[in-house]
Each structure stands twice: as C-alpha cells, then as structure tokens.
Amino acid sequence: MLRWLGDGLSPARCAACRALVPQRNAVFCTACLVSVERCPVSDRSIAFGYYAGALADAVRRFKYDDRPDLARSLGGLLRIVCRESRIAADIVVPVPLHARRLVDRGYNQSALLARHVADELGAPLSIGALVRVIDTAPQADLSREARRSNVAEAFRVGRSTLAGRAAVVVDDVSTTGATLMACSEALLAAGATRVTTVVVARTAPTGTAR
C-alpha cells in the first residue's frame, strides 16, 4: 500500500520536504514515505494515517506555511481512505474557521480538503452547514480537558438542511477528537441521521493530544 501511495498522487516534489519524488504523481519522496503509518479502518472516525513523520510535516506546511496547493496531495490521501472505508454521505461538511481566523490564514484548510472528499463520495459540499460562532483559543495550547470545554459551544448549524441526511465532517487533524465531537453533536442535534468524521491524520493512542 505504501509503495502504491508513493506512485499514485500529487506533485513533482515531496509534500513534506520538497525533495524530488521518483514518480510525477507521488505525494512523498522515498525517504519520507517510510515514516508514514496508516491508521486501521474505522467506522465513524476515519483517518488516513497517524500524525507523525512526513504526514505531520505535510499537514503543518499545508496549514501554517501558506500552502493551500498541498490540498491536492492531502486531499488525494483522503480519497484513498474514503474509498477503502466505503463510506456514503448525503452531505460533506468541513470544520469551519472563525471569520477572523479565516481572514488571518486566507483559506480554510478543512474546506479545501472537503472538496476532494465530496468529489470522491459524489455528495454535495456544504461550506455553510456549520458556523464557528466563537473564536476559540488554539487547541494546541490547551490540555485535553480544556479542549473539550473550549469548543463545546463553538459551532452552530448554518443554512443547510440536515434533517434525515448522513453527513461526513472533514478536518485536517484529530487528536482528542473534541472539535470533531462538537461538530458532530451540532449536526445530530439539527437532525442528521449519522455523522462520520474524516481526517488526514490523527494522533496515535500513545501520542500527544491536540
């Protein structure tokens, strides 16, 4: 599988270190690829791999180094895991950024990833299904317990109709799962019948939580 990954997806340079890749559509160079560890297939909480090594480096570059173009590489990984998991959806929802954070960053990385998931699943993408109504403190700066309370009331359902629909929520990384849980609870309260979360990476059970 990892060899196939090296052959199958994005640009001519490694998404993690920018080294030349052996095949034009590879996501990672040969050296970085060996550090990518896949997550086991799950039911409601799906992640491509563990947040470590080259995968973590690529996500950080995408999110913090003004590299929205890396959505193609990382979105391709989400296409793979969606295909493997055989999930279905009536609507795809990205985890929203607060308006102020969106202006500062210039793009919502989760929305860019969600476009690839929506295309793969053949489901409509709803950017406005969830709204972040509180500009919460960065989760990385908080303890596990504080992260849950930090996002508990942060999300509200927007303009989309959720009643009777199966939703997929997309984010870049999951650690404690607090953000994804808050989003899922808001969608279920609005009438969604099922919520599946899909992320590029999640922290390993023995890793440090976000």
Describe the structure in your own words:
This protein has 210 residues and is α/β, with parallel strands linked by helices. It has one domain: Rossmann fold (3-Layer(aba) Sandwich). The protein is built from eight helices and six strands, in the order H-H-E-H-H-E-H-H-E-H-E-E-H-E. A four-stranded parallel sheet has the order 1-6-5-2, with helices on both faces. Strands 3-4 form a two-stranded antiparallel ribbon. The longest helix is centred in the middle third of the chain and has 15 residues. The radius of gyration is 16 Å and the shape is globular.
Summarize the structure.
The chain is an alpha/beta fold. It is built from eight helices and six strands, in the order H-H-E-H-H-E-H-H-E-H-E-E-H-E.
What attributes characterize this protein structure?
210 residues; alpha/beta; single chain; Rossmann fold; two-stranded antiparallel ribbon; four-stranded parallel beta sheet; globular
Q: If you consult CATH, what is the topology?
A: Rossmann fold
Give the total of domains. Answer: 1
State the end-to-end distance: 28 Å
Name the structural class: alpha/beta
- CATH classification, class level: Alpha Beta
Report mean pLDDT, rounded to a whole number. 86
